[in-house]
Structures are given as C-alpha cells and as structure tokens.
Amino acid sequence: MVKKLQDTTTLHNGVEMPWLGLGVFKVEDGAEAVNAVKDAIVNGYRSIDTAAVYQNEKGVGQGIREGLEATGLKREDLFVTSKVWNSDLGYESTLAAYEASLQKLGLDYLDLYLIHWPVEGKYKDAWRALEKLYNDGKVRAIGVSNFHIHHLEDLMKDAEIKPMVDQVEYHPNLTQKELHAFCKEQGIQLEAWSPLMQGKLLDHPVLSEIADRHNKTTAQVIIRWDLQNGVVTIPKSIKEERIKSNSDVFDFELSNEEMEKIDNLNQNLRCGPDPDNFDF
C-alpha cells in the first residue's frame, strides 16, 4: 500500500514512477507554472506532468530548477513527463517534438514521454519514434495517453516495446474498469488525468459523507480511492495550500465498503473528449 508521497510503482521496464504527482493542464506559462511546480517540489512532490500542447513547458522547467535549488534535490530525484501533440505525430516530427520539449523544459532527458491522443493512422509512426528515443537512452519510459483497449491492441500488434503507461481520464464518474483490468493484465500502469473531474465531484453527497467520516476533503477521498485502486494520479492545482492538501492522503484508508460506494458512482461520464471521437 502507498504510504507516503515519495512512494513509487515499478513500471514493466523496472523504472520507478511516483504514485502521486502534480498535473499542470491549463496552468499559465510564466509565474503561475513556475510557482506551482516549485511549491510542489518543496512540499514533497517528485512527479511533474506537462505536455507540449499545454504551452507551459518553459515555466515548468524553470519551476523544476527553482524547486531543486530550494530543496537541494538532484534532477534524478524527479520524474518528469511530457507528451507529443497530435499535429506532431509521425516518425521524424515526433523526434523533433521531443527535442523541442526538452529545450523548453531545459532538461537533458524525460522520465516519461507519451503520445497524447490516438490519432488514427499516425500513432504507430509516432510510437516507432518513441521506441527509438527509448532505445537510444533519451527517455526512461514511454507510453500513451487516452488509448482505449482497441488502440492498445492495435499498437502492440506491431510494437517492439509495450507501452509502460496509459494516462486516461479517470474519476468516480468514469471508472474505466475494463481498460484498467486490461492494463493490469498487460503490465501497463494506468494513470489518471482529471481525477477530480475538474472540480465537478467536490460537492458529491456520497463523497462528502465519506470525507466527513474521515475528517478529510472530498478531493482527498478521491485521490485516496485512486491510489487504493492502484492508479497513478496527477491532480492539478496552482495554490500551494491545495497542492499540500492533495498530498495529505497517507494517514487514512478507505474501507472495502467505501471503495465500493465510490466505484458505484460510475456513469461512464467524461469531462474531456472520447478518444474514439475527438476533433483537434
């Protein structure tokens, strides 16, 4: 069981990935990104998740440098993720996109690089590029984001390397049970984006009742539910108080009954696009 903020899961290639990290979707580049990332590192976070399309890699990189300086940690103490955007999918263009992300972040390597969306006809060439980056030692782990089971099966038919991570929308209204079971079977680590459903679940009566019982917030209950389900999670916040609060989930445990109650909130409801039907 996950006992502290720095605890990790071991990916199928042996790389250790923190269970809990900071997501920076919709965090503005500049001071907002710098401060959120620095605050997260100072408060014990060891995983930061960004993407080319977030347009904040520069600020994230600066926040990493300031966070390392403030704590005396080394680059290798952190786990940094970015993602290649749809318009760059393709063999050469993915390799170029990776280098562009590194340059903006000011880093020599990434710990995890993901294909952001399964654009039909393009993700296999992009995956070959990720395999090259991995085989060349330029990235420690590779994976995908927003891939359904059929996308994963299609990719793995021709892949030399199986994805290590699938980062998907995952929260109590979208529990993705079949995908989760498939990933477990294949040794692919499931990771949750938008674990709090962009704040839409924070007043849910079932979650509020469980939170009151444990003297916790609904956000803390949802994050704990993720971790007890064996799902890596990256809640986003730009406020230091909330960043700290989101990580204060290691002094309580949800019972089997509570876990089941939360599981039963599933409605297959998304706040983001369906990977089978997206247009961007």
UniProtKB/TrEMBL annotation:
CDD domains: AKR_AKR5G1-3 (cd19157). Residues 21-266 form the NADP-dependent oxidoreductase domain. Keywords: NADP, Oxidoreductase. The keyword Electron transport does not apply. It comes from the Bacteria. Belongs to the aldo/keto reductase family. This is Aldo/keto reductase.
